[in-house]
Amino acid sequence: MAKIQMKTPLVEMDGDEMTRIIWKMIKDILLLPYIDLKTEYYDLGLEHRNETNDQVTFDSAEATKKYGVAVKCATITPNADRMTEYNLKEMWKSPNGTIRAILDGTVFRTPIIVKGITPFIPTWTKPITIARHAYGDVYKNTEMQVPKGSKCELVCTDKDGNETRSLIHEFKDSDGIIQGLHNIDKSIASFARSCFNFALDTKQDIWFASKDTISKKYDHRFKDIFAEIFETEYKEKFAAAGIEYFYTLIDDAVARVIRSEGGYIWACKNYDGDVMSDMVATAYGSLAMMTSVLVSPDGVYEYEAAHGTVQRHYYKHLKGEKTSTNSVATLFAWTGALRKRGEMDGTPELCEFADKLEKATIKTIEDGVMTGDLALLSSLPNKQKVDTEEFLLAINERLKAMM
Ligand code: NAP
Ligand code: MG
After folding, report:
1. N or C: where does the chain have the smaller number of CB atoms within 10 Å of the terminal CB?
2. What sign for the dihedral angle of Cα 20, 311, 287, 97?
3. Looking at ligand 1, which atom is closest to the CA of residue 325?
């Protein structure tokens, strides 16, 4: 059979530890035999980031802007232990943070649902995708402990030197605490556009919520920016696609999410997204079944798994032991990127291949063949735990039958 051709390359960002091992296996077993794979390769493994003084991370993000689609392997974010382990010149920043800042993107996380693994909320039969605004609020705050007798004010000095003051609190009879937060319209607008684009892209409704009844200027600004951009740029496109934008209060959103069956995108302010993404991921069962895509407001896409480099499995692998590491999220990062490449280039064969590979993967698990993490969760009676490579080979058997 002739291999599927690609018109434009994908940006390929290689990574670290066990996910780097899986990365190569996925390519060798499931991609290269079927596709004449064109990628522009960037090695984001920690050793190479260190050799290039992290330049490779910046270059990979610029390439993503150029080509429009990237697929990324999980990477180590260095800490003190990694400084000695890899003899690093500097404690390089998180590659994901660097790439997100360059693309000005929003991260969307979606669980992969399979029969046999029931979410803790059993009515969630479709995925809930969470989008987290990744700028400002409490993550870029200024805070103080203040002694009794203090008077605290917000002061804004404009470009001409005029001051506007507003009382926060007079601490008359107790010590206390204060906190200053900010956000910027430009970042909120980028977040809104990324969310609306992704909703159109995946043909799902999008919900956004804040506490605008209490925070009449701060949270209300988020609500207004979303509403304005929706009205002027997206309303008609949403109508044509048959999807909705829905704004509500955060409390109401939480209640509705629990009662829902899933199948929509939930856009969250930074703190809400931090907390709710952990709740939603846990409720769906496994971090190894969670995909993640970074979407820029101008429509650039970077796909990856939501989990890390699975370090403990890597050390086992280095000792020559077999591991049973789940490759599904990394595999779906590849299928997501290939499908998007196919859509952008007008090569439907590539999209069809991505669909088949996803179907073959889900079928493998639903046939009872799975890695150890899923075997612990699955309620299927005939389940069989296989190792990392056996799982990919089992997917390939099913994929071959579909081709
Ligand atoms: P992790 O790699 O996500 O793994 C934590 C644990 O979750 C594993 O030890 C394993 O549990 C389980 N797990 C995660 N993914 C799995 C998979 N695919 N298959 C089977 N089990 C899986 O998180 P971490 O150990 O905290 O972080 C390791 C490194 O990853 C760190 O250096 C961190 O900086 C990096 N990281 C990178 C990203 C990214 O690039 N997006 C995200 C998060 C973390 P058991 O050991 O119990 O089997
Ligand atoms: Mg969190």
Report:
1. N
2. negative
3. 19
Based on the domain organization, do 291 and 400 belong to the same domain?
yes
pTM comes to 0.92
- Residue 4 to residue 24: CA distance in whole angstroms: 19
Q: Which residue do the tokens 């390769």 mark?
A: 41
Give 209-238 pLDDT, tens digit per residue.
999 999 999 999 999 999 999 999 999 999
Among the three residues 220, 250, 283, which one is the final residue of a domain in this structure? 283
Is the distance from the beta carbon of residue 324 to the nearest atom of ligand 1 less than 6 Å?
Answer: no
Mutation to probe ligand 1, out of 310, 323, 331 (largest number of atoms < 8 A from CB): 310
Residue 350 has which token pair? 């590539």
Q: Which among 307, 314, 330, 365 is the best mutation to test ligand 1's pocket, defined by most ligand atoms within 8 Å of the CB? A: 307
CA-CA distance, 292 to 305, in Å (whole number)? Answer: 6
User: What is the count of structural domains for the chain?
Assistant: 3
End residue of a domain, out of 267, 283, 299: 283
Task: For residues 107 and 356, give the distance between their C-alpha atoms in angstroms, rounded to a whole number.
Answer: 25
- 226 and 150 within one domain: no
Instruction: Supply the range of the domain harboring residue 174.
Output: 142-180
Centre of ligand 2 to C-alpha 272, Å, is 9
Q: Do residues 277 and 302 both lie within one domain?
A: no
